[in-house]
Amino acid sequence: MTGDTSVLTPSQEHYLKKYLIGALINSELDLLQKNPYATLPNLGGPFDLKDEHAQSTTPFLRYLFESVVVPFPFLAGSKGELWPKLQAFVEEWAKIESGNGIERDEMVRRRRMKAKAERTMVMMYSMAVKTVEQREQEKKDLASPGDHATTLEDSFGQFHLQQPAPAELPSVSGPSTVIYGARINVAGVKSVWIRRHIREHEHAEFLVSSKLPDGRESIVARRHGQFRRLYASLREEYPRYEFPLPPAKSEVKSGSAGAKAAHEKDRISLRGYLHNLARVAPEIVTSTIFVQFLTKDPVTLTADELKDIQIRAALDQHRAEQQEKFDREVAAKVQELEGHMKQVKLDLLQPGGVSRLFDAFRQYENVQDLPPLYQTVFEWGCMNFASTLYHAFTASDDAALNFTQLKRTNMLMPYRTMWGILKVSNPMAMMKGMMDLFLAQPFGSRSLMQRIISVNLQEEITEYKKDIVVLETSINDPALCDKIRNYVYASKEVVSQIIPEDRPYDITQLGLVMDVLKSDAIQPTLNPAQIKRVFDAQQQLEKDLLEKLARHQSMDVDLSDSDSDSETSSIASTEEGSTRRFHSSSASSKKKAARAKQLNLIRQLQQLLVTHLRIRDKERMMGLVFQGVTGEIFKELISIFYQPLVQVYKSANVADSLMDVKDFVDELIKIVEQVDVNDDGRSGKPSTASLYLNLVRKHLPSFYRFVHSVHKQDDGLFHDLLEWIESILTFLRTGYARTRINYKTEEELRVSVDLKSFVRNNVDQSQWAELEQETVALQTYFGQIKERKREEVREMARISSSSSSVSSATPSVEKITVERDHDRIAKELKGMGLQQEDVDELEMINYSDDDDDDEAEKALKMPKVPVIDTLKGPFVLLMDKAVFQLARE
Fold this sequence. Notes:
The protein is mainly alpha-helical. It is 66% helix and 5% strand.
């Protein structure tokens, strides 16, 4: 306690306010998530037409909804037909969400999405609603902006566009990437000849080098088919995870003529595939299957293989240098912009500054006629976009997959037909033609829109169906398989008899399989022998898991000593390896094999359940997207956005612009297909990076012509959008959705709450000491979160540095660099008028605490604050008087 005149310090008041806002928003989100259809009227606006002045059970969400969502320019033009349909859509969505459970990864994803939404809203309210002391400090900062302005001016370009990669560092996605402590690289390729009948055939074996978290280093040779078997084994062992599909073999085996490095595209794509597998979860990196793939049967490199690895390392380095060359050129443009930035900032902050910016787009027909500053900005944009294309389709390990998806989508787009429809002069006929093109279902077949959306998922769905056939054949018990499937497609009433909880549950739990099979609510009913078969398998599984844990704890597991097939489960492989190590009898080996078979049964039943679930969810979502109320909402959105689309259609030559897009994508595909991955920069040919840059520069005039045409005849569309964005910024700055002026002092009104009086009026003096202790605990808790976030950033910097074998940076240097960048950005944000508390809120917006069960003990726990919890109700009344009432005026 600081004395009788002040219950809490200004910093403690801030964290008290933040906690109350966060707790109340969390409860409102829980209410909306649990029963969205019944909660919608509490959001007000179009959902509460009967009594707009009624007290809402979700006042924080209601204020943001009425102040931010409803005024959106396009939605403001709705005649009220959208919202009832949206309510019906939410009701249908709620039915799907209350289905028969979800996968664990999806549960974690939803929790994190909710947490991020909560943090975003807490950040908005914390910035908008300040205490009296914070507003006073704000006035002092605005009265002396000189220091902040200088700091902001000196590093404006670096703040926005700083490129962190020095010339000597390879790309983070390159050969030495460290993922969960493991460094994995497909370093080279060797050719082997295998005789089939009479002739010999050449096959490629990829040299996979790795350094595991425990320090072991290995180099193994793996065929392309072994990567596919690794995928199948991981899916069988870990059905709760979704693994990326292995890349297909490249049609080009040797790149250009006379290439030094054969199968280079395959090597790059397989390296990216291993990285993506490792990123699925830390559990995968340390799994027996993955470790055996990286370490079993190591090879000794020959002189030719060492030379091949050196050649490919040079190619990797050249690609990294090309990426860094882009970065340096972009940084040079930033320096070029820096001299003009002060004038541009001052102009934009003046009334009508944004309008003057868009007036330039209206006035100048060609990009070459723009003022020098804007031309420099466009040039920087070209280089940045070209750098992105180069990374996505050439330098990245996922380049082959990205390119395949691009070609597939481009092939399906009916550009010529769309061009003919867009050429129709009647906007209504144009819109009808476009809707008919994408939504028509001739003879009951799928519409074009359905095909475009589902084509990239079809391969995965086909794999799921194949898995089901294999699993059902292996299980060899139609009753067990039918019961699992019937559970997945059972009604909510039937499922509630097995799992009575209303909240989503993890459907990947092994115990759920037994609950389903023992239930009489799901047909068919199993006989005792079938139940015993599954029960015995489950009991043996639990026992084997305990044995496996004990072996790991005693370091008695030899991960490279098993010669079992790669598709056998990791536990079974470990058991067989242990049997060989200890020279067990033949009878013991047979028992181990029987246990593996039982274990395989329970794993297969679990995977069958999960696979049916994935197919069911896709079917339900497709039905929701393309049938019933969703179609009505889609048509309503078309009508809402129709007027703005017509404005764009009238002012710009959309048809020709569409063909410009087609030409750009076609040329991009040709460039990617012609790229020589074996180019080391010494052939005298134009660099791959320059090809991308020339492509973007070539099409820049077409892009600017479209922008100019749209702005030339704008009659308010962009003005309304800018006003809406400005209203959000006004709320963050003042707490009001619209600027309010005190006409006596001509000062901008800003929301402030007197927490000192609030605490004195709502907390008994005998509890002040306890209240102070609770606020100190909150201050410590939020400080720990902030420090953990910064430590994550420092750790990422350390890992990035350690992934390079040529890096000379030390962890201490990296830490100093990270801290310096953090301090610089904080100063720049303060120079924009933000206080330290606002900077902290922005820093925490992307903080994600671990939701994994293994990390539960490490997670920070919110302290118990019983005295502060009693202030939730009074705080809502305080906010209602200060802010919420304005939404009802």
